[in-house]
Amino acid sequence: ACPQSFVFFVFGASGDLAKKKIYPTLWWLYRDGFLPEHICFVGYARSQLTIEKIFQNADKYMKVHDHERDLYKKFLELNHYVCGSYDKSEDFDKLNHEANKISQHTSAHRFFYLALPPSVYGSVSELISTHCRPGAPGWVRLIVEKPFGKDLQSSNILSGHLSKFYAEEEIYRIDHYLGKEMVQNIMVLRFSNRIFSRVWNRDSVAAVKIIFKEDIGTQGRGGYFDEFGIIRDVIQNHLMQILSIVAMEKPRSTTGEDIRDEKVKVLRCIAPIKSENVVIGQYLGDKESKDSERQLGYLDDAGVPKDSTTPTYAQTILYINNERWDGVPFILRAGKALNEKKAEIRIQFRDVPGGMFDENGSKAPLARDELVVRIQPDEAIYLKVNTKRPGEMSYSIEETELDLTYNERYRGVKLPDAYERLILDVFMGSRINFVRSDELQEAWRIVDPILTEIDQKKLPVVPYKFGAAGLPQAFDAAVKHGYVFTG
Ligand code: BG6
């Protein structure tokens, strides 16, 4: 057998994330020829399992086509499983020994993917570093999943712990939104189009909205969710990451450090969110719905305490105190159990000054221009503009769209899954799309005080029905801060 020069470890190999995302992604990357030739994979978890059983459980997510069966078999042969604890030195010695044996190599490069509950991050990361590092010249890359702590303090403790055992360059903190096509496109849109770069500031922009909506509830994941709530689950990470790319200054280059330097700089200009700029809500079941899932409210989820006030919806409005953005509201809104699944960014431009178009004798305000980046579903960029209503004799105006819908313009182009891009980035050693520890710290600093107030139940939790478009209180607050609904 050929010595393997890369070993990819999956910690938490028996868990949900491994089954639904990590193993399928590794298979697709292998199938498409993106992985190095000499590689093997070692799953690790506490349960007495076999690699066959793990792949049986993951089977429906792997999407293996009939003509790929032989290749898939080869992939399976590269996979192994070791069972052990998350806190005993001897188990990590055993793992190290097994990995050396499997790869026939003591200095193969090693990837460690921690798909684990946060309670064991500390011990596992330490034991990997002390027992499972390869001999020189082999290197280590540690891939970690959120939650990176629960608040500023716990996140700093975790970061401090990791930094004792790993150099920052060895750590890849995943925020899977950074692997999405449209999030990756923001930089190109901003910095390769003069038409946008000139207006990307407070002189022209009235408000920015970053929205995340889901049409599903917690679906039995309530036990986990209840400890976190929507701000920690989605806003502190995904939406704040998007905000930093939308608002940052132009990086000096496309290297990971230059980009992350600019992202963190803009986060530093944001004061902690004030409670008067926050609306939170929790969903109730819709008893009239024909869909049995929609009949269930958040409190009906078996893992959720009956008196929980954890928010499943939140809107936070932030301001960036720098020359480019002073006074422009950034409205971050996220909710579960709403009427649709959608994630988008809306850059709304200011009113046109000096109106000249007369509609019905009154100078009606024109609709504002708006640039929309639809992250999902159905990726698109469109610009809402005013145009003369076609065929009419008078100057009557209507709003329309300059529309780049990917399905139409790029029909047939496969957009890789976020995890495919990110795991490939880890292989290539590219850290652009991973969160640096200072970014993480700034994002926590911004949300930390409001999380404390929410945890202490100081904010009213507005109930909303499963399937609602959102909370009227949130829409009103957005309008109060200067956002105008354009329809
Ligand atoms: C995860 C959150 O980070 O993102 C989930 O923990 C959420 O609650 C998910 O459902 C959404 O990801 P996507 O890619 O489906 O928008």
Automatic annotation (TrEMBL):
<comment type="pathway">
    <text>Carbohydrate degradation; pentose phosphate pathway; D-ribulose 5-phosphate from D-glucose 6-phosphate (oxidative stage): step 1/3.</text>
</comment>
<keyword id="KW-0119">Carbohydrate metabolism</keyword>
<comment type="similarity">
    <text>Belongs to the glucose-6-phosphate dehydrogenase family.</text>
</comment>
<keyword id="KW-0313">Glucose metabolism</keyword>
<protein>
    <recommendedName>
        <fullName>Glucose-6-phosphate 1-dehydrogenase</fullName>
        <ecNumber>1.1.1.49</ecNumber>
    </recommendedName>
</protein>
<dbReference type="InterPro" id="IPR022674">
    <property type="entry name" value="G6P_DH_NAD-bd"/>
</dbReference>
<dbReference type="InterPro" id="IPR019796">
    <property type="entry name" value="G6P_DH_AS"/>
</dbReference>
<dbReference type="InterPro" id="IPR036291">
    <property type="entry name" value="NAD(P)-bd_dom_sf"/>
</dbReference>
<feature type="domain" description="Glucose-6-phosphate dehydrogenase C-terminal">
    <location>
        <begin position="187"/>
        <end position="482"/>
    </location>
</feature>
<comment type="function">
    <text>Catalyzes the rate-limiting step of the oxidative pentose-phosphate pathway, which represents a route for the dissimilation of carbohydrates besides glycolysis.</text>
</comment>
<dbReference type="GO" id="GO:0009051">
    <property type="term" value="P:pentose-phosphate shunt, oxidative branch"/>
</dbReference>
<dbReference type="GO" id="GO:0050661">
    <property type="term" value="F:NADP binding"/>
</dbReference>
<feature type="domain" description="Glucose-6-phosphate dehydrogenase NAD-binding">
    <location>
        <begin position="10"/>
        <end position="185"/>
    </location>
</feature>
<dbReference type="GO" id="GO:0004345">
    <property type="term" value="F:glucose-6-phosphate dehydrogenase activity"/>
</dbReference>
<dbReference type="Pfam" id="PF00479">
    <property type="entry name" value="G6PD_N"/>
</dbReference>
<keyword id="KW-0521">NADP</keyword>
<dbReference type="InterPro" id="IPR022675">
    <property type="entry name" value="G6P_DH_C"/>
</dbReference>
<dbReference type="GO" id="GO:0006006">
    <property type="term" value="P:glucose metabolic process"/>
</dbReference>
<dbReference type="Pfam" id="PF02781">
    <property type="entry name" value="G6PD_C"/>
</dbReference>
<dbReference type="InterPro" id="IPR001282">
    <property type="entry name" value="G6P_DH"/>
</dbReference>
<keyword id="KW-0560">Oxidoreductase</keyword>
<dbReference type="GO" id="GO:0005829">
    <property type="term" value="C:cytosol"/>
</dbReference>
